[in-house]
Amino acid sequence: QVQLVESGGGLVQAGGSLRLSCAASGRTFSSTNMGWFRQAPGKEREFVAAISWGGGSTYYADSVKGRFTISRDNAKNTVYLQMNSLKPEDTAVYYCAADPDPRWNIVAIRTAWEYDYWGQGTQVTVSS
């Protein structure tokens, strides 16, 4: 069982930066692949980034590649999403998610159904 709590969202101007954090509880965090998704009003939830359980592998959606960085600190049971050069189209509720399957599959980790545990979400609003 993994419980997730996101923080760090807020209002920022276009071109600015935010760092989201996701604190996890549960003894299996260090063996759990983690992902970030987002959902804008009226749109489906979409994949943003994922990181393998050891942190050695990452994967990004094309829309954020080069601007966002996912990382994790297993000693702190926390995964991060550093977001730079933010655009108005990045406005959404951001969710972190945990995938208890330790295998790294770049097809599977982009899909929401792969993840068993979700946080409550944190709002990110980028003004133009």
Task: Walk me through what this model shows.
- By secondary structure, the chain is mainly β.
- Helix content is 0%, strand content 48%.
- It has no helices and 11 strands.
- It is globular and about 40 Å long.
- The relative contact order is 0.31.
- The mean pLDDT is 95.
Mean pLDDT: 95
Largest sheet: 7 strands, mixed
The helicity comes to under 10%
How many separate helices?
A: 0
Cα shape: globular
User: What is the percentage of strand-forming residues?
Assistant: over 45%
Quaternary class: single chain
Structural class: mainly beta
Order of helices and strands: EEEEEEEEEEE
**Rg estimate, integer Å:** 13 Å
Distance between the termini: 40 Å
Low-confidence stretches: none
Q: How many individual β-strands?
A: 11
Topology:
Elements: E1 3-7, E2 10-13, E3 18-25, E4 33-39, E5 46-51, E6 58-60, E7 68-73, E8 78-83, E9 92-99, E10 117-118, E11 122-127
Parallel strand pairs: 2-11
Antiparallel strand pairs: 1-3, 3-8, 4-5, 4-9, 5-6, 7-8, 9-10, 9-11
Structure keywords:
128 residues; mainly beta; seven-stranded mixed beta sheet; four-stranded antiparallel beta sheet; 11 strands; globular
Describe the structure in brief.
It contains no helices and eleven strands. It has strands at residues 3-7, 10-13, 18-25, 33-39, 46-51, 58-60, 68-73, 78-83, 92-99, 117-118, 122-127.
